[in-house]
Amino acid sequence: MVEAGRAGGEEKQGGEELLNNNSLSSSASPASRAYPNSIGCQRSSTFSTYRLKIMIIGLTNQKGGAGKTTVSGHLAYWLSQQGTVMIVDADAQQSSTNWMKDLQLPCKTMIDPDDLFDELPALAEQYDAVVVDGPGSLSETTKAILSRCDLALVPCKPAGLDMHSTSKMVRILRQARELRGGMPHVGLFLNHAKKGTVLLKDAQRAISEKNTGFPLLKTMVYDLQVIADAPGQGTTVWGLPGATAKRAAKDFEALFTEALGVVNGKR
Questions:
Q1: Cα–Cα distance, 261 to 20 (Å, whole number)
Q2: Distances in Å between the alpha carbon of 112 and those of 21, 100, 119?
Q3: Considering all CA atoms of the chain, what is the largest pairwise distance in Å, rounded to the nearest integer?
């Protein structure tokens, strides 16, 4: 099992781990240099208070089109503003690989489950965080990701077929946690959400913690065209102008901060 919070020294005060300034450099990252005039990520209070505990974050779901690549790319960029990040593209479509080249973020394509199992811990020793963009299936590749990640984030699209797929994913998550003694930490969240719809309310009930046993993050990612457009333009919502892009950026920041709270025991 990969131990969270291994890299760098740790100080404790009042039972809380403080930020290790040597671990998360304040110097400009490759991603920030790529957007010298863009809307930058605001430093999260999670990072200003806590040292990054998690090392490997997996975006997983059985269903294709749930938004794993879009969320993982934005997560990697957001984390790159705080420290060093490697994104692992474990999807055969390799959408993250091309996008990360535009963002000037390090990316490694790794589809074979044995390679993932063997190499993810080594990558976690080299970077402050490793983000894994998983495939849209419950393949051995997905199981390998769950066997190594410290936090599994599951984007769920509020639609009937997607909810059915999520129930299968929940079963695999339970099995992984049983085998690993309670790891990985898990956070479900709604993606492509539309405000005020019956489908959204039904989805919130279907994947509530009461029904799945896993936290449903309060923050949702809404169905905004600017989010879908960002990868094709070789950027993130932080690199796009306009009020809608700012709104999407705010939602992502809230989502990622809340997700880290799952590991920090704040959710």
A1: 18
A2: 35, 20, 11
A3: 49
List Cα–Cα distances, 20 to 48, 75, 253, 259, in angstroms. 10, 21, 21, 20
Burial class of residue 170, CB neighbours in 10 A (0-12, 13-18, 19+): buried
Answer for the pair 189, 257: CB distance below 8 angstroms, yes or no.
Answer: no
* Kind plus residue range of the DSSP H or E element containing 63: none
Q: Is 16 helix (H, G, I), strand (E, B) or coil?
A: strand
Q: Is the dihedral of CA 218, 223, 224, 228 positive or negative?
A: positive
Q: Rounded to whole angstroms, what are the CA distances from 198 to 159, 162, 216? A: 10, 15, 18
- Tell me if residue 83 falls in helix, strand or coil: coil
C-alpha to C-alpha distance for 136 and 63, rounded to whole angstroms: 5
| Contact indicator for 184, 223 with CB cutoff of 8 Å | no
Q: What is the mean pLDDT of each run of 10 residues along the chain (267 residues)?
A: 36 31 36 36 44 79 84 97 96 91 97 98 96 91 97 88 75 96 96 91 92 95 96 97 98 96 79
pTM given for the model: 0.81
Cis peptide before 241 (omega within 30 of 0): no
Name the pairing type of β-strands 85-89 and 185-190.
unpaired
Instruction: Compute the distance between CA of residue 127 and CA of residue 159 in angstroms, rounded to an integer.
Output: 36
Question: Hey, which residues does 185 pair with through a beta bridge?
Answer: 151
Q: What's the chain's length in residues?
A: 267
Bin 196: left if φ > 0, else alpha if -120 < ψ < 50, else beta. left
Q: Which helix (H) or strand (E) holds 30?
A: helix 30-34
